Amino acid sequence: MTNIIRVNAVHHTGISVRNLDTAVQFYKDLFGIEPVFIHDSSGPEIDRAHLGQLVNVPTPDIRFAFMKVGNTSFELMEYRQPRGKAFDRHNNDVGVMHLCFEVESIDATQATLKTQDITFTAEPIRLTSGPFAGCAFAYFWGHDGLMFEVFEVPKGL
User: Comparing C-alpha atoms, which of 69, 96, 121 is closest to residue 15?
Assistant: First the structure.
């Protein structure tokens, strides 16, 4: 029998970005999300060679921001050195993840995002049956060609 490790919560999800300032501005302008802090790997508390072993990237120079929405956090990371390649994946590629924001109104959110030149992949899907009956969701392209989702949960669900 295997020992089970108890997980208390998901602390954060990390997203590599091309330019940290541009990504932070994206979240600030569209959703009003401000960074909790912005830091980098140049301080004395971080051994870059050891960090490279941890993240499997040789001696990285990383600038990062922690963003918080409700009780969830996500980290934006810009690898200044070595630079990563541009995002070129699709949702069905193994390992691809997306960030989903819960919103009060999918229609109002989509209308507002479209005024900011955000492109949606399709009109929202509204679910009428199954475990998510009453919910609606839509996907859109954000910074760095990354896929995002907005999700409406009706009150009381």
Answer: 96
The answer to whether 64 and 77 have CB atoms below 8 angstroms apart is yes
- The Cα–Cα gap between 134 and 61 comes to 45
> If phi over 0 gives left and psi between -120 and 50 gives alpha, with beta otherwise, what is residue 84?
beta
Q: What is the rounded distance in angstroms from the CA atom of residue 118 to the CA atom of residue 30?
A: 10
Indicate the DSSP class of residue 143: G
- Pick among 3.10.180.10, 1.10.630.10, 3.30.1490.20, 3.30.420.150: CATH of 98-157: 3.10.180.10
| 82 prior amide bond cis, ω within 30 | yes
pTM of the full predicted structure?
Answer: 0.89
**What pLDDT, in 10s, does the model give residues 68-118?**
999 999 999 999 999 999 999 999 999 999 999 999 999 999 999 999 999
**Is 1-86 a CATH 3.40.1010.20 domain?**
no
Phi, psi of 111 (to 5 degrees): -60, -45
Helix (H) or strand (E) holding 25: helix 20-31
